[in-house]
Amino acid sequence: VLGLLVWALIADTTYYLHAAYGWVLFVSIFFWILTVLFLVTYLLQLQLKFYMIPWPLVLMIFNAVATVLYITAFVTCAAAVQPTSWRQWDYNRRAAASFFACVVMITYGASTFFSFRAWKGLGSNAATSQVTDHA
């Protein structure tokens, strides 16, 4: 939802006048689509059918790449906001898009941390640790 807000706010401005917003749109739309595809994959439990793919590693790499590219998108978007814009609504939307890009960047960073823990096996709870100890 937050990624959708980023690209919807940018797409509603005159982004074509500033080349920097093309990068922000690319990053936000690309990772929004991939995140929705991963969500559908997990909701339909398709990862169980493709058991040969190391899903925790794939998700960790995806989240890490998304974090790094969202850092660049956030910095680009924030640097391109011009407070002396002749169109006040463009300024407000671009500033809000910068804020939400920062929130999405932090969210992907937290997801990277948790997917790293899942990949290393550090995210187990008491029930799973007892089952694996006796098996």
From TrEMBL:
Molecular function as annotated in GO: structural constituent of myelin sheath
Signal sequence annotation: none
Spans through the membrane: 20-44, 56-81, 96-116
GO cellular component: apical plasma membrane; myelin sheath
Localization per Swiss-Prot or TrEMBL: Apical cell membrane; Myelin membrane
Keywords, comma-separated and alphabetical: Cell membrane, Membrane, Transmembrane, Transmembrane helix
Subunit and interaction comment: Forms oligomers.
Protein family: Belongs to the MAL family.
Protein name per the record: Plasmolipin
Organism: Lophotis ruficrista
Lineage start: Eukaryota, Metazoa, Chordata, Craniata, Vertebrata
